[in-house]
Write a structure and sequence with these properties.
alpha+beta, 4 helices
Length: 122
């Protein structure tokens, strides 16, 4: 979002974040939770989903964001606004911090692999 904010300003950037939230909520089943985590990060808690189901949801959300007609998207790399998604599954030994940490590691891997992709935890 830095490049977007630099080009269009923070008010437009904030509007895009609100639109991203709406796109995520619209494309996520009601039993799941979508929340802004901070800055330009969002969390989707996909209750009762295994890794494969969560990965498919991540791909659905990634595609929904890529195809949404955000203002100024043509000025962005590839002519679209994109997201990188990290997927982690809850294990019986998890703490909240360890689960979020694995999901965060997967997001960093998605970004390192070129962005605009979904990565499962290692």
């Amino acid at each position: 979002f830095k490049a977007y904010n630099d080009r269009f300003g923070h008010l437009r950037g904030d509007e895009v974040l609100k639109q991203v939230a709406r796109v995520l909520e619209t494309n996520t089943p009601d039993r799941h939770v979508v929340a802004r985590w901070g800055g330009e990060e969002f969390v989707v808690l996909a209750a009762e989903s295994d890794r494969d189901t969560a990965h498919r949801l991540g791909e659905k959300l990634r595609n929904a964001i890529c195809t949404f007609p955000f203002y100024g998207r043509e000025s962005q790399p590839g002519g679209q606004v994109t997201i990188s998604v990290g997927v982690a599954a809850l294990s019986t030994s998890d703490s909240f911090e360890s689960l979020v940490g694995r999901a965060d590691d997967a997001v960093y891997q998605a970004k390192a692999d070129g962005r605009n992709r979904v990565c499962l935890e290692a």
